[in-house]
Amino acid sequence: MRWILFFIFLLVVLQVGALLYLVIQKRKRGKQEQSRLDWQMQFREELYAYATEEQSEMPAVKKGHEDLVELELFAFSNLTATEHHLERIYQFVEVSLLPYYAKQVNHRRIDRRLNAYEAIAQFRLSPVAESLKQRLATDISKEEVDVIIRTLVSISPSFAIEAAKTNQEISFFGAVLAVGRSTDLSLWIQSFDELTLSFQMAILQLIHDRDQTEYLELVRNKTMDDHPEVRKRALRALTRIGLEEDWALYLPYLEEESSWVEQMLALRFLENVGRKDNVTSILPFVGSRSWWVRTAAFDALLACGGLEQLALVAQSHPDRYAKQKATERLAKEMKQHVI
Amino acid sequence: MSSETIQSVINVLSWTVLIYMILVILFYSSLYLISAQMVRKQRFRRKESSYLPLMRSLYTRPVSILVPAYNEEYTIVTSVQALLAIDYPEHEVIVINDGSSDGTIDQLFKTYELEKELRFPRILIGSKPVKAVYRSRIDARLIVIDKENGGKADALNAGIDYSSYPYFCSLDADSVLERDALLKVMKPIVESDEEVVATCGSIFLVNGCTIEGGEIVEIRTPKQRIVLMQMIEYFRAFLFGRLGLSRFNLLLIVSGAFGLFQKDIVVKAGGYKEGLVGEDMELVVRLHRYMKENKLNKRIEYVPSPVCWTQAPETMDVLRSQRTRWHRGLAETLWTHKRMIGNPRYGFVGSISMLYFFLIELLGPIVELIGYFIIPLNLLVGTLNFEFGIVLLTVALLYGSLLSAGAVLLEEWTMHRFKNVKELIRLYLWSLTESFWYRPILVFFKLGGLIQFMTGRGQWGKMERQRLDEVVQEEKTS
Fold first, then answer.
1. Phi, psi of A115 (to 5 degrees)
2. How, if at all, do strands B130-136 and B114-116 pair?
3. Which CATH superfamily includes the segment(s) A245-339?
């Protein structure tokens, strides 16, 4: 009986305590909000004046208001700042906020640490690179590893590449976001074979996205890689670049019963090249079970000037869907011609 | 019947109620602690930075938003307007007019200048015949499928067949999605390299809020107590129920009102099952089953911050019909997949999640009902000390209230959407009353659902819709 009464007492205390906490927190936040807002406005003006060299003196950072400073810095550098303004902002952050961020990267709360890493990357605070490298060696979550590597790419690419050689945890998307911060991929390319799979895929993906022909040799080699994901991404990059001489690299994927991705890429390659004598290679794919393959086949057919063949498909193809799709594409083509 | 037999029956029932109470307290407390820890970890995280890279990224997957609509003439335009305005790199909105008898399609014609489109889908799942497909002349991302009435599951299946993108998001026609909600639910999918195959966000109640141009501009607590209690219930269900379950891939419900799915896996699992009222839960259970039986290492996740706003019933009658339907849906789903319940072959989903839904969610109302009678009965027969009975009842009621109050606290921690302290206190104080009146009412509604399931009767029921922008006006005058 006594322990149950104690439990009831505990429940009541918890309820009253929670209510008080809620009210006090809310009131405190409400009271602080106005004065914080006023300070933020004032800081905004000072920051603008400093960044545009209207005033030489750096704005002062009030203790406990670093989050507002961060907000203003992010907004200013993402929306209006020029290269020159950014330089001034980096200078300001290094002088005024370095001790704060050095402390934040070792904060016990993960949310605070993640915020700090992002700010460090944004404001190029390279003096903390060593601390980040050390943190990477500790037992941290996958999300934190992702953000740290991304940050290192911005402030110390060599550290980031070292981490990319051993880190198996990072996702492909994480690797793309990280490597994507480097405008020049040559450092990454030099170490390509030592990097983990996610980073290899990310580099090929970025070569594709940036349409970079200077790494063509590497891309060609990787179309025969043992790993299917690396192979597909190399083929995708090559498809985008679209040099006719590379056609031979795609042939194995058309002849064999290979994956839909490789078949689609081969067809997209033909679409890019756009030669009429490729029409016969395309026709077998208009009735493919894969939506991606047959869509690519129709696009390639039209790009290669296969309008007559398209009409034939619309008239007599054994696959009902291919017939319908060809009719639809034909109608669209005719409409465009009339217009 | 001898007094000894009566005595032993009462004893058995009393023990059942007591064990059930302990079980529930333990389960919910653990769930709450797990959720609170998860919320606490992300409490000070700068909100935008975690998903903004996605918006700018080329790798965000395109999504087809499917909106099944049956007699939604008052809400459909506002919903579509909001959906076309969301922040997302590439999406299409497919409204499936499921044989509405009101002016749903006329409203769309009038506002979006629809024109007929020739479209030949590769039928992946199949549905009732489609009469026509239209595309908007104003915004080409809007497609309207006009089909014969076949129910929500059938409409969603038609939407899947006609959708162009590899991911689809199911959404209720009376809901308003926050601008960044789709980006936020897509984040776990992209970051996990597609290991996550379905995600869902929170669903909160729009009653009492102000909507302008399809966007929520002011959040307030509703005036009606019944809606207020539902609001607290939603906080509890999402902020600690789903968050805690999602942590261990135990989520069995991705609400039909707002869920994002990988199309391929849904098609492989057979799409939405027709003829059930809880088609959303059934699909998720079937996905889990499919993943376990095919040994796929995939996950279903809940993300707390993206919010979809929806209308809640404002009258007891509509609430009864909704809750009866939901409970019938739960019973149907558990019955359909009964072999998973407590079955270790299905991992934690079978041995924890399904068992929890069966014992606590489905049978809970029966035990609770017994509980409401057993203590007075024990006192009457004299088998229970009066003080002990009162104490037991107090524990049950206080604990229930504390959980609801805890959910309000979690809301304040995660989102702090209520700017006014008075509103928050009102919400908190009402949450303390939940166990005394609202929960017993729900117990009776749920029992109705169970009876409907066992007798094979029951229908969908009618939800009275209001224009979304009028909800507030009525709130203010009430």
1. -60, -40
2. antiparallel
3. Leucine-rich Repeat Variant (1.25.10.10)
- The set of residues, in sequence order, having a beta carbon less than 8 Å from that of A128 and lying 6+ positions away, is A98, A101, A102, A105, A120, A155
User: B63-69 and B91-98: which strand pairing?
Assistant: parallel
The span from the CA of B413 to the CA of B416, in Å, is 6
Among B51, B52, B58, most A C-beta atoms within 10 A, so best to mutate, is B58
Listed in order, strand segments (DSSP E) in A67-159 are none
A181-235, pLDDT tens digit by residue?
A: 888 888 899 999 999 999 999 999 889 888 888 898 999 999 888 888 898 889 8
Read off the pLDDT of residues B319-351 as tens digits, 9 standing for 90 and up. 999 999 999 999 999 999 999 999 999 999 999
Measured from the Cβ of residue A264, the count of other Cβ atoms closer than 10 Å reads 26
Region for B71 from its dihedrals, namely left if φ exceeds 0, alpha if ψ lies in -120 to 50, beta otherwise: left
Residues in chain A closer than 8 A to B49 (CB atoms): 115, 118
Determine whether A78 is exposed, middle or buried from the number of CB atoms within 10 Å of its CB (0-12, 13-18, 19+). Answer: exposed
Mapping DSSP to helix (H, G, I), strand (E, B) and coil, where does residue B201 land?
strand
Q: Which stretches of B206-323 are assigned E, i.e. beta strand?
A: 210-212, 215-218, 258-262, 299-310
For chain B, say whether A331 makes contact (Cβ under 8 Å).
yes
d(CA A317, CA A334): 20
DSSP assignment, residue B102? Answer: S
CA distance A164 to B47: 27
Residue pairs between chains A and B whose CB atoms are closer than 8 Å: 92
CA distance, residue A25 to nearest chain B CA (Å): 9
Over the stretch B108-148, which tens digit does the pLDDT of each residue have? 999 999 999 877 676 788 889 999 999 999 999 999 999 99
User: How many Å from the N-terminal Cα to the C-terminal Cα in chain A?
Assistant: 88
User: Average of pLDDT values for B384-394?
Assistant: 71
A328 touches chain B (CB under 8 A): yes
Q: Please, where in chain A does CATH 1.25.10.10 lie?
A: 245-339
Q: Can you count the helices (H) and strands (E) in chain B?
A: 18, 12
Nearest to A7 among B49, B395, B409 (CB): B395
User: d(Cα B435, Cα B400) in Å, to the nearest integer?
Assistant: 6
Per DSSP bridges, beta strands B114-116 and B215-218 are unpaired
